[in-house]
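User: Could you check the structure of this?
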Amino acid sequence: MRYKSIKMLKSEYNSKILEAGCDEAGRGCLSGPVYAAAVILPKNYQNKILNDSKQINEKTRYQLREQIEKDALAYAVGVVDNIEIDKINILNASFLAMHRAIDKLNIKPEFLLIDGNRFNPYKDIKHACIIKGDAIYMSIAAASILAKTYRDDYMHKIHEEFSNYDWHKNKGYPTKSHREAIAQYGITKYHRLSYRLTDNQLKLF
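Assistant: Sure, the predicted structure tokens are below.
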């Protein structure tokens, strides 16, 4: 298989401390949960194709997930469902999903690398927010791969329950076909009611 040549990401932010990269997937979706992952990679980790999950095709993402889970010192995934999202808003839900992922790590990191420009501090662990960090640091990119693929797996699963919405293709994002399905079939128990789903919010399906 031939991969597009890319600049290798940075292996670490501070080589003297144990870092965990954190990222989320699904913030912009109309349905389903938001997923986040936390990943601790070995020092001086090398992977020539690891990159932001949005820059990699689906097949490669799943290949990378397998490699990341094999190589990582620790990794975990956290989830916040659509009901919680509606209660606390998507920004706080994204932070909470990251916290839940960090909670599940079997090694406590000394520092957190967060993708984006905002974060709610996690306990006593210091952090740095890195804008577009998933295209800069390997640990954040690895977290983006895990969050994306595990969320996609979940959207494939609930597609079997509500096949009219094409979640196996759009993963809950606001595509034209997804909005048209909402207009035609109504809102499911997986939709985020705090989001603008249609011009007029519809009756729960």
